[in-house]
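Entry 12.
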Amino acid sequence: MTVNINDNTMSYLPANDRYDQKTNYRRCGRSGIKLPEISLGLWHNFGGVDVAENGRAMLRYAFDQGITHFDLANNYGPPPGSAEENFGAIFKKDFLPYRDELIISTKAGYLMWPGPYGEWGSRKNLLSSLDQSLKRMGLEYVDIFYSHRPDPETPLEETMMALDRAVRSGKALYAGISNYPAELTKKACAILKQLGTPCLIHQPKYSMFERWVEDGLLAVVEEEGVGVIAFSPLAQGLLTDRYLHGIPADSRAAKSWGFLKAEQVEPALAKVKLLNDIAITRNQSLAQMAIAWLLKDKRVTSVLIGASSVAQLKDNLAAQNNLTFSDAELKQIEAVLKA
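Predicted 3D structure (tokens):
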């Protein structure tokens, strides 16, 4: 894989006012860490198939706005690993002097290399993957290391002991879990607490169109003092004005490697249009309203957004300007979602 970062670009000096109320921060569960209400995810648009300078521009803009949390995983790309490689190249050129201002996370659990040890939740997979991720990014440690998904065939104790080992080795500062259902989250938190490495954060898929976390998980994380960072808050772009008039050629639904498929767009359009109408009455874009809708719940520490341009990132960050909903608005939104 070749990472093309233009060496002729001017050296980066972040905005001096990046912490002057440009973004808000929330405490992550009952920990000592605060995260920005909106964090930047590198799941899409930072891989080997993308323009690295575009990703670099988004990372720079995000940090200038006080966004301190960048989220990755071993398999982000495509191809797998390329998002970490690109990030590592950008980090070395732009962000190395500011390492202590950043929260950088990565994950392991989905398929990354061939053979029986290249995925899931074994100690072998998690710790080997963490070493690979650190090498790709050129980091001594990550701030958060996640078990990316529960493994039905590996004892939960083994997976949690691997996270504990990652922290005790100094290769991660905090442990997290992602995509774990409520009951398994409760058990994982109990094991980690017993090991002396409390679970910092849970990263579930959560949006207006994906609400499984409301059926028990949010109650568990609140009880356990664990933070929540919601991924896919815009349902892969469905909860934006992107598809109101068809499928743009440069959209996720038009890409062969994307997770959002063209056939998923049409069935959702009626609800999307009604939600967009509500957003307009709030003087927000639909994306801004969808982000604000998640942040109305104080159990949600941060919302993890993906962006394809600085302009899109700027629009999403503006969601923080209006996080308040009237009862009437919430009832309108609920009526659309349940229709």
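Annotation: The mean pLDDT is 93. Residues 18 and 45 are 24 Å apart (CA to CA).
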